[in-house]
């Protein structure tokens, strides 16, 4: 299967121009001082629906969705929000399948964006089986969260925007789960600027892509609760694109403890005045933990903001006491 390439991303950027927010790349004074280098934050927290996921979803719907009756996905979080929103914008229906373990606040957030929710089984795999069934029985178009060329190309537009704004960036820190984001960003950045370094950042607990790269093939890991809940889940077996992209284009992977991720969330709040979810804060956390030592100009993809606000409040109030 051929991998997505730079021209797919450039085409996606054209398609997305009127549909997504061109998010700001802001200078971080606090992190620049700590690192003794220039650090910029790419704020996908400001993206519509609160994460970058709208990029990949919108690119897929614009490429393949015009004739579809409606859309379907299995997701508990940001992918579901993005899909529900984009479907509503197109005036089409959207079904999101979730297991009965998904908390009510996540269900209602997606329902509020206009999606029909189907609660099935007790795992993400059960939810995915329901997606496959609905594709066949209802003729809905499945929209995968990461392992899809259209999705990867959409996420890659983040790298185009960063290098347009700051061509001098020489290190990129990118959150890593299924690898649609990191794979798309790394392929795009290195195609535009081969000398750039791209580092994926995950949590220590249940990092499927890190374990897969180590094993040299996609492997299953046990999912564990983590503050970076948007980084949970497997990479898919078989995996068609993102494993290869990450293997080819990522220079390094950094794994973080829960304490380090929590510090990233706290720093984002107290120093940058940004509400950032755990997955979105891992790049900041990697710099704070000094697990990466970049020398030149760094851009950090801050990928999302959708955190339970009660959890956020607790974390940031405890952060001050450290
Ligand atoms: C989905 C998501 C990620 C990880 O993206 P992948 O393409 O699965 O690697 C990171 N941060 C946030 C906020 C997300 O929603």
Features:
322 residues; alpha/beta; 6-stranded mixed beta sheet; 13 helices; 46% helix; binds pyridoxal-5'-phosphate
Ligand set: pyridoxal-5'-phosphate
Query: What is the N-to-C order of secondary-structure elements (H for helix, E for strand)?
Result: HEHEHEHEHEHEHEHEHHEHHEH
Mean pLDDT: 95
Secondary structure tally, helices: 13
Residue fraction in strands: 15-25%
Strand order in space, largest sheet? 1-2-10-7-8-9
Shape: globular
Helix content: 40-55%
- Count of individual beta strands: 10
Distance between the termini: 49 Å
What does it look like?
- By secondary structure, this protein is an alpha/beta fold.
- It is built from 13 helices and ten strands.
- The strands form two sheets. Strands 1-2-10-7-8-9 form a six-stranded mixed beta sheet, with helices on both faces. A four-stranded parallel beta sheet has the order 5-4-3-6, sandwiched between helices.
- Helix 4 (78-90) links the parallel strand 3 (70-74) and strand 4 (93-98).
- Helix 7 (149-165) crosses helix 8 (180-192).
- The longest helix has 17 residues, at 149-165.
- The N and C termini lie far apart (49 Å).
- The model has no long low-confidence stretch (mean pLDDT 95).
- The structure holds pyridoxal-5'-phosphate (PLP).
- Residues 51, 53, 78, 146, 175-182, 230-231, 277, 279-280, 303-304 line the site of pyridoxal-5'-phosphate.
